[in-house]
Amino acid sequence: MEMQNQQPVKASKEFSVSVQEVFQAWNDPEKLKQWWRPMGNNITDVTNELKEGGTVRYTFSDNSLVISGKYEEVKLNEKLRYTWNWEFTDDAVRNAAYRLCIEFVSRENGSEIHVTQENVQSAEAVHPNAEGWDKGLADLEKFLAGTKGSNAPHTGVTEPGYRERPEQVKVGGG
Description:
Elements: E1 9-15, H1 19-27, H2 29-35, E2 43-48, E3 55-60, E4 65-75, E5 79-88, E6 96-107, E7 110-118, H3 123-146
Antiparallel strand pairs: 1-7, 2-3, 3-4, 4-5, 5-6, 6-7
């Protein structure tokens, strides 16, 4: 049974790059892995079949989180509508199924993105979801700004200043 009077979670952001660049960063697996880290999780595998009925699936470190869904509408560089299922392997209570609508809008001096998340199951979930989208879009903006001339390699590690490979951690007698 569907809940009544639910307000969708909405987030928007303007970018100084083309709508095509934003769309590509949102959908290209290698670019997505560099900027999107929900709740600090790193993406390890992406399936993204950009067609109606196509699969979208993100697998995160340790397989502790998988997000999967199916595309319902695909308009390249314009609009994506798809199901969005969070699957936490160690916490069935937190599993959730949503529907996303992502709109990409071309502007005179760049572009804009609008995210609408439907089927939020409780009033308590609205604020954390909104904060998550705001952070994700801010991270996307930083990524797009940094791709022009940044030659720093992506290490896949989120801790600032930590660039050692795992086998280097105990160097120095640790």
